[in-house]
Design goal:
The structure holds 3 protein chains of 3 kinds. Chain A has 5 helices and 5 strands, in the order E-H-E-H-E-H-E-H-E-H. Chain A is of the alpha/beta class. A 5-stranded parallel beta sheet of chain A has the order 2-1-3-4-5, sandwiched between helices. By secondary structure, chain C is mainly α. Chain C folds into 4 domains: about 5-365 and about 370-420, Up-down Bundle (Sodium/glucose cotransporter); about 540-625, no CATH class; about 635-730, Signal transduction histidine kinase, dimerisation/phosphotransfer (DHp) domain (Helix Hairpins, Orthogonal Bundle); about 740-885, Heat Shock Protein 90 (2-Layer Sandwich). Chain C has 33 helices and 7 strands. In chain C, a hairpin with a 7-residue loop joins strand 6 and strand 7 (about 880-885). The relative contact order of chain C is 0.09. Classes of the chains: A alpha/beta, B mainly alpha, C mainly alpha. Chains in contact: A-C, B-C.
């Protein structure tokens, strides 16, 4: 199992922070700021983990997640979702759409790292 | 088409109107009494001794009967002319006051 | 002695004159210049069809036989007219407000639009009036024969005269009574012709009277002396007959179909009654005035055994006054013709509306709207009815042999028609009167009249002699002229007493025992309380009615043009733009009334019922009927108000609820947005703070860089909070405006320098300072805030390679307008409507602010009494700020 993560997030500063954290953990981090072509990108790049923001320009994170879960080979892809809207409805929607882990901004760096590690460990288990 | 003038008419000066309404009511009473009076007067001939009656009194000459009947007739006509003249100012069929012929409705 | 040719010529000329008058009056009425046609005088004269040939010839004969008794026939109507205020006035008002077409229609309409009742009344009327029409034919024939009895002319016979007279009258009635179908059933032509005939007959009778009194007797007192010396010189009137016939005359005056036609249906204006109330009794008085003198002189001068019914004609003839006799003949001719024409018209209306139309309608199995031309059918039915009625009268005359005295036929007729009176008066004054009561009373009275008066009176073997003397099957107390063993009464008195008594009793009893239908009760209230509310009966729920079907049907009945006009008028009344009105209950009600003018109330109700289909009485009506109090209509309208209030409240509640839901959704979205806007910078701050804390080995460049991010995000947070507070203050209206005077150009200078400060590649701002020397009085700081926002937006979002912003100032309609137009691609059309909403952003990537700027600008402009809009159709992003122009406009300095 490789350590390739695709970060889809439109806030440049947040992207930079997460990239900093994960790179130091040995992850290969790609970032993308637009929602409209995210699914195609994921399909092409085949990352080991996706970190997805909910409020994205072009297409919302929820819709991207739903599409991922409907397409072959991406059903089990670990997706960590981040949202700044802090409403419980979003968490329910995300879980219904098949999210692997859901986190509300602002998060602590340790939380993100733990979540990424957990997801990675789960996916690596045979 | 009726009663439309109702509200506006009643907003006239009260004292004046009361008096007029009262006069109208009594006039309408008179108009209603007129046919009753006519019927009574026309019933009077029932009391006259007739030629066929074997009774004591001499039969009434026809000329007197004619005079009586046509006199009553003419009086009734005059009464109606008088009433017509008095009510002429009450405009037409649309006025509320002359419509309210029975103040307490629902006699039936 | 006049020749036959001359007689025929005079008659034809007279009829031609009537034709011309009637035709001219119709034309005049059509052009609307007919005010005098609708005068009370014409109305009064038209009422004189009460005085038929029976009056003209028969009154003298009556007086010669029974003395003054004849006068009762005219005292009755006099009493009715004298009491017009509470009797006739109501009848006329009801007739007009309900668009009643005949007495049968009135009865039917009053008792829940029952067609059965209408048929009963129609049959009664036809049977009752036929002898009367025969009587008129007889009198014309008699008057002809008087002229020719001394000089028989070849080819003349009673039968042929009667036939031609009947045929001629039928043609006249058809021509003028059924030329068109008017919703009001008014026939100006016929009425005017009748008025002319009224004048002719009055003048003729007066002329004969004057001739008799002053020409033959030598003055009033001499005439009076002659009267007293004559066989009728003593009062010899039977008291019971006096009272009975007066009553009969009252009843007949109101109930006779022809009287109803001229008095109620042809009435143009209720106020005419006021004049007719004295003018018509005067007419009657004048008509009666010379009857006794003519009778007395006739008895004196005419040979023994001559017919007293013809004295009016024979007395002048015997004195050689041929011209007077001719005038008198014309008077009699007028009396007979006018009566026959109006009676035939009235009866034909009843027959066609209540017998032919219902049968025709029920024979059309499908809906009325798809069947044939109703209008044509109605007219045809009327024409045929007139012809049939005339044929009936003709055959009655031929069969009865014309022997009976004129007066007795007339009285029999009156007694039959009087059977309608209890139902009519009861219907007008008693709300408890029901259809069952009216049916019971009418049938019983009608049967008794047939049994006790008509059949015995006809003779001719219609009723076996044995029945008359011993009763049917030998049952003595059922003898037709001595019911229940009461003998010795005059047959008329006997018949009228029993029939009216039992008629009224049955009417009252059945009314008390039966329960009226809702429609009956509504109609009852409408009739009895007609002066309180002349609004129509509420009968239709229009929800299922098809306006088009109604239109098609109405066109067939009213004619295309009239129907279209009616519908357009109604549509306009309803405020719609189309040609077809909504089938509201109000409209259906009015339409029904219009149609009932042509086909009668019951048929109109049935026809609309066929199209509307639904129940004829709405729930609302039933609720209204449930109220027993006299204020039924009031209650109904209250209910209506309440239910509309309820509906309105419900609607308001629904709207409020929708609004609340929407506000709640907006609030959720707003909170979500704020949360997002707050948490996003917070996330960066937290993340980089932790990074700085946890990673000691960071290079100084990184440290500075991360600290700068933290600072930027913190500033962003501050800005957001400032904006939020600002917006909140503006939205709540708590803002304090600092109103000052200033020059627009100065404000723009300040705004541009603030907005573009510190930009590396500032956008080019194009201005025309000459336009900007406008002095204004407003909150300059707030206005500057708006300008800054717009300029900053342009700076931020203008995607042109060489961004430019053009600021131009105009005066548009007394308002100061400042346009900010950049050369970028502008805002996409689909989001232009939301630019002033909170957190609006065209492009999230470039988001520097919180997306509140335009929302704040919008609020500010509202507070300043101005406006800010996005201008469509410009090359780039374009905003227009407008302000009320209050200060003086100064020339450029």
């Amino acid at each position: 199992m490789g350590r390739h993560v695709l970060l889809i997030e439109d806030e440049a500063n947040i992207s930079e922070a997460i990239r900093f954290l994960l790179t130091r953990e040995g992850w290969n981090v790609d970032t993308h700021a637009d929602g409209s072509d995210a699914v195609e990108l994921i399909r092409a790049a085949r990352p080991d983990l996706v970190i997805l923001d909910v409020m994205l320009p072009g297409k919302s994170g929820m819709d991207i997640l739903r599409e991922l879960r409907e397409s072959d080979g991406l059903r089990d892809l670990p997706v960590l979702m981040l949202t700044a809207r802090g409403q419980s409805r979003d968490r329910e929607m995300a879980e219904k759409a098949g999210v692997s882990r859901f986190m509300t901004k602002p998060f602590s760096n340790a939380e993100v790292l733990t979540a990424v590690r957990d997801l990675h460990a789960q996916a690596s288990r045979p | 088409m009726t009663g439309d003038g109702d509200g506006t008419d009643r907003r006239s000066p009260a004292v004046f109107l009361e008096r007029q309404t009262y006069r109208r009511r009594r006039l309408m009473d008179a108009a209603r009494l007129l046919p009753v009076l006519g019927a009574l007067l026309f019933a009077v001939p029932l009391l006259w001794p007739g030629a066929e009656d074997a009774g004591a009194a001499a039969p009434l000459p026809t000329s007197r009967a004619i005079r009586y009947i046509f006199l009553v007739w003419a009086l009734l006509i005059l009464g109606n002319i008088w009433f017509g003249l008095l009510t002429r100012g009450w405009s037409g069929p649309g006025r509320a006051e002359d419509e309210a012929e029975v103040p307490e409705r629902g006699l039936g | 002695m006049a020749t036959l040719n001359l007689m025929v010529l005079v008659c034809l000329a007279y009829v031609a004159l009537l034709f011309i008058v009637a035709f001219a009056a119709d034309r005049l009425a059509a052009t609307g210049r007919s005010t005098w046609l609708r005068s009370p005088l014409i109305y009064t004269l038209s009422l004189s069809i009460y005085c038929t040939a029976w009056t003209f010839y028969g009154a003298v004969g009556y007086a010669a036989r029974s003395g003054l008794e004849y006068v009762t026939i005219y005292l009755g109507p006099t009493l009715v007219m004298v009491g017009w205020w509470w009797g006739l006035r109501k009848l006329v008002r009801v007739g007009r407000s309900q668009r009643v077409t005949s007495v049968a229609d009135l009865i039917s309409s009053r008792y829940g639009k029952s067609n059965l009742l209408a048929i009963c009344v129609t049959i009664l009327a036809v049977i009752g009036i036929t002898p009367y029409i025969a009587l008129q034919l007889q009198s014309i024939t008699l008057s002809f024969s008087i002229f020719f009895e001394d000089a028989p002319v070849g080819g003349f016979s009673d039968a042929s005269v009667v036939f031609w007279v009947a045929a001629g009258l039928a043609v006249f009635a058809i021509l003028f009574g059924t030329r068109n179908l008017d919703a009001n059933e008014r026939h100006h032509g016929v009425v005017t012709a009748i008025a002319l005939e009224a004048v002719v007959k009055l003048i003729a009778l007066l002329a004969v009277g004057v001739f008799v009194v002053w020409g033959l007797s030598g003055g009033v007192s001499e005439t009076m002396a002659r009267i007293d010396a004559s066989p009728i010189g003593e009062w010899q009137v039977n008291g019971s007959r006096w009272a009975t016939i007066t009553f009969l005359a009252v009843a007949a005056f109101v109930c006779l179909p022809r009287m109803f036609q001229v008095m109620v249906v042809e009435n143009d204006d209720e106020r005419h009654l006021r004049t007719a109330a004295w003018a018509f009794p005067t007419y009657l008085l004048l008509i009666s005035l010379f009857v006794v003198p003519i009778a007395v002189v006739g008895l004196e001068v005419m040979p023994e055994g001559s017919n007293p019914d013809m004295f009016v004609l024979t007395v002048p003839l015997s004195q050689g006054k041929d011209t007077l006799a001719m005038l008198s003949f014309l008077g009699g001719f007028s009396s007979a013709t006018s009566m026959v024409i109006v009676a035939a018209m009235a009866l034909s209306t009843m027959v066609s509306n209540h017998v032919v139309m219902p049968i025709w309608l029920s024979s059309q199995a499908d809906r009325a709207s798809v069947s044939g031309d109703v209008r044509h059918v109605i007219l045809l039915a009327r024409r045929v009815s007139i012809a049939v009625i005339m044929v009936l009268g003709y055959f009655y005359f031929r069969l009865s042999g014309g022997g009976a005295a004129l007066a007795s036929i007339g009285l029999i007729s009156f007694a039959g028609i009087a059977q309608i009176l209890p139902s009519l008066v009861g219907g007008l004054f008693w709300r408890g009167a029901t259809r069952s009561g009216a049916l019971a009373g009418l049938t019983l009275g009608f049967a008794l009249w047939l049994y006790t008066l008509l059949l015995p009176g006809l003779g001719g073997g219609l009723m076996p002699d044995g029945v008359l003397s011993d009763g049917p099957f030998g049952i003595g107390w059922l003898r037709p002229q001595a019911l229940f063993g009461i003998e010795g009464l005059d047959p008329i008195v006997h018949s009228v007493m029993w029939s009216m008594l039992l008629n009224t009793a049955a009417f009252c009893a059945a009314s008390l025992l039966s329960f009226p239908s809702p429609l009956e009760r509504l109609q009852g209230a409408q009739f009895v309380n007609v002066f309180d509310h002349s609004a129509g009966p509420r009968g239709w729920t229009g929800s299922v009615a098809q306006s088009e079907d109604l239109m098609i049907m109405s066109q067939r009945i009213l004619g295309a043009r009239e129907a279209q006009e009616l519908f357009q008028r109604e549509a306009a009344l309803q405020g719609g733009r189309g040609h077809l009105p909504e089938p509201t209950p109000m409209f259906l009600e009015r339409l029904e009334r219009e149609l009932s003018g042509s086909v009668g109330a019951a048929a109109a109700h049935a026809m609309i019922g066929q199209i509307v289909g639904g129940s004829s009485v709405s729930v609302e009506d039933l609720l209204a009927v449930a109220d027993e109090s006299a204020q039924l209509m009031e209650y109904s309208s209250q209910l209506e108000v309440k239910s509309t209030e309820l509906a309105r409240t419900a609607k308001q509640l629904r709207e409020a609820n929708e609004k609340l839901t929407q506000i709640s959704l907006q609030k959720d979205a707003f909170l979500g947005q704020i949360s997002h806007e707050l948490r996003t910078p917070m996330t960066s701050i937290r993340a980089f703070s932790e990074i700085l804390r946890d990673n000691e080995g960071l290079g100084p460049t990184d440290k500075v860089r991360y600290a700068t991010i933290i600072l930027d995000e913190a500033l962003r947070l501050t800005r957001l909070l400032d904006d939020l507070l600002d917006l909140s203050v503006l939205e709540n209206g708590q803002v304090n405006l600092n109103m000052r005077s200033g020059i627009l150009g100065d404000v723009l200078d300040r705004a541009i320098s603030t907005a573009l400060a510190g930009e590396e590649r500032p956008l080019v701002v194009k201005r025309r300072r000459a336009q900007e020397g406008v002095r204004m009085h407003t909150d300059l700081d707030r206005l500057a805030q708006v300008f800054i926002n717009l300029i900053a937006n342009a700076e931020k979002y203008c995607d042109s390679a060489n961004p430019e912003l053009t600021i131009s100032v105009h005066d548009v309609g007394g308002r100061l307008v400042v346009d900010f137009i950049d050369n970028g691609s502008g805002i996409p059309a689909e989001v232009q409507s939301t630019v002033f909403e909170k957190f609006f952003r065209v492009n999230a990537e470039k988001a520097g602010g919180a997306g509140l700027g335009l929302a704040i600008s919008y609020e500010i402009m509202q507070r300043l009494g101005g406006d800010i809009v996005y201008l469509q159709g410009q090359s780039g992003g374009a905003f227009r700020v407008s302000l009320p122009l209050e200060g003086d406009r100064l020339a450029a300095q």
